Every structure is written in C-alpha cells, then in structure tokens.
Amino acid sequence: MLENKKILIGITGSIAAYKIISLTRLLVREGAEVRIILSKAATDFVPSLVLATLSKNPVLQDLTIQDEWANHVELGRWADVFLIAPLTCNTLAKMACGICDNLLLASYFSATCPVVLAPAMDEDMWHHPATKNNIKKVQEFGNTIINVNSGELASGLFGEGRMAEPEEILTFLQVKLGSSQELSGKNVLVTAGPTYEPIDPVRFIGNHSSGKMGFAIAEQCQLMGANVTLITGPTSEVLKHTNINRIDVVTANEMFQQSLNLVEDSDIIIMSAAVADYSPVVVAKEKVKKSQKEWSLELTKTKDILASIGAIKKHRQFLVGFALETENEQENAFQKLVNKNADCIILNSLKDNNSGFGYDTNKITILEKSGSTIEFSLKSKKEVAKDIVSYIISKVNV
Ligand code: CTP
Hints:
CATH architecture of the largest domain: 3-Layer(aba) Sandwich
Low-confidence stretches: none
CATH superfamily of the largest domain: CoaB-like
Shape: globular
Oligomer: single chain
Structural class: alpha/beta
Distance between the termini: 25 Å
Number of domains: 2
CATH class of the largest domain: Alpha Beta
Largest sheet: 8 strands, mixed
Mean pLDDT: 92
Helix content: 25-40%
Bound molecules: cytidine-5'-triphosphate
Number of helices: 13
C-alpha cells in the first residue's frame, strides 16, 4: 500500500526515537522510500548507522555536509509526506514560533508536502498550556497530529504522553497516503461510552460501557476523511486523532441535548453510547446518609436519543443504532431498528465470549431495514470499526 511512496522522517531527541527503528523497517517492507533527518539531540538516542542501513539511504543531520550545503528545500519537495516523530516539546515550540536552527527545522519550514507530527513527552509537559497552544498553532498551520497514547512514561510515571506505536503510525500513513478518503466532506456524529445519572453528589447510576467501540468508530471515520464529532460519556479512552471534535458529557440528558444540537448538520449518525434508560427523579443536594434500612429510588425514563433522531431524520441522513441483547437477540434488535427508525442496527451479543463491555474484541451482526443480516467473526474493536465503517460507506456512497 505504500509502494513507491516517499516518506521523509525527522527524528528529534526523545527516548521514543528508538521506535523509529522498527517504523523504518515496517515502511521499507511496505515498499516506501524512506529518508531520515536527525536533530543533534536525537543522535544520543538512535545510531544513524542503524537507520541508514534500514532505510537504505544516508541519514542527514547538518545543514552542511563537508563543504557542501544540504538541500533542505529539495527534501520537502521530494517527500509525499514529512513525518516528524518523535516530536519533542522543544522542536514543537520552535515550529510554532518560526525558529529554524537545524536541518530538520529548515526542511520543515520549506516543506511543500503534508506534515504529520507524532509528539512524545512527559504527561505534565504534554498538558502544559504552552504545549497545548503550540499544538493548536501547528494544527492551524495545516499539520496533522497523531495523538499521544497513555501508559508508562520514561520518567516512570504513568499518563498521557507516549508516542504512538510504530504500527499505529504505519496505519496512519497508509490511510493518509492511500486513496480511500471515501467519507471526505461528510459530517459524522458518533456517541460513545456510558452515561452517569447522579443520585447525590457522590453516587450515580452507570453501566460498564468503556467507550472503546465508539472511539474506534470515530477514529476510523476520521481516517476515511470525515469531519467527526464524538459525544462521549465518562471514559478513560483517549483519541489518537486530535482532529476529531470531542464533546464530553455526563448524563443522558446532556448527551441528548448535544446530539440534537448537531444532528441537522450530520450526514451520518452512529449511536454507540450505552445511554442510561432511567435517571433519578430527585438528585439529593447532600450525600444521602445510610440512616434507613431500605432505600427506594424513584426513577424516570430518559429521552431515547436514537429514537428522537430517528423521528426527525431526513432522507439524506444515515442513522446507525446499536443493540445489546441477552435473549431473542435478532428479534429484539430488529424491533429496535423499526421502533427507532434507524437505517441499520449493530447487534452485540453478551453471550459471545470476549465480546462487549470492556473487552478489546467484539462480535457483531449488522441488521438491515430489509430484514437481512450480515454476521462478522470475533475481531479487535479496531477491525470491527473498519467493518462497520466500510458497511456504512457502501450504503451512503451509492
Ligand atoms: N439509546 C439512546 N438513548 C437512550 C437509550 C438507548 O439513544 N436513552 C440508543 C443506544 O445508543 C443504542 C440503541 O439506542 O444505539 C439501543 O440501545 P439499547 O440499550 O440496546 O436498547 P434500549 O433502547 O435502551 O432498550 P432495552 O434497554 O430495553 O433493550
């Protein structure tokens, strides 16, 4: 898929630089031509001999090579994409304010190809307002960010800031350089995660939804070129692509309001959230003490977001619902499709091992309006998201 694609990689001084060794290998295996520029600090983390051997090209570092000037303009014109990974806080700041004091930055400022950035830093640096501003600025300049992951950091702390894994960067580049931007120009609205219905200031009614499936769908739609808005309930999931518009909500009512605000402008609406069906009639102002032996909570039905959108949806809009069933699965799911006026329902069964809430895998069946069904095998949620989005594309791009 990357046959004859020209990829320029700029590596800056972060411990994550070691991951570029395997990324280079993966890219060359995929048929790409790879050239690499190292910043001076990066040379402390990766040996240029390894990178030169794997990329089959000399690795560049200085603005001059012996008495010759390294042509940074040529590099940015040669490349189909310029990937800067890992991108340190320091180089990011220089890119944001126009400082050009090495070959990597000179190549960046003169590049005419798309630029993709994969930051790597400690969590506090990543969350610092200056970093946030710089990220915003370089995005406004037209660069694309591959979002950081959460996990163990070089400092020994756990949190956000890890550079995306080589395989993730490879997929990102494959999509970016591939022709499949089949959702280009489409506005997609996705709901994900659980909702929490407060009982008192410390308690709520919730469910086990992790948000993983909805996040994977939102990311897949974005990779296919769509403008994506993700409305999510409380979750620890982090988006890989900062170009997705993420709206965080807590309650079913908040999710309802936000969805209704956005529905008119949406071409495709995918409702994967596990919305609470009931919420407490009264939310206690103070923590409820355990003075009574028994406690009954009066609950009232929440608004059904999918059904509300189904009732007003236009012919040009494609509405996808989800169903989680434990018995009479297909009959119940089909009834939901009809009652809520969806165009299709993605049925998850809790009966399938390793499928549903919290798992990284899922097994789905797509039910169509016509009554026909398409069954899929157990796959990672990322692969399931690809199946769902491919199905939607086949329906909206006819
Ligand atoms: N849904 C919604 N708003 C609600 C409840 C559900 O938009 N208040 C949506 C979900 O996002 C999903 C679909 O409706 O796309 C089906 O959700 P599910 O929980 O399986 O079904 P319910 O309609 O809640 O019915 P039941 O719990 O009785 O199975």
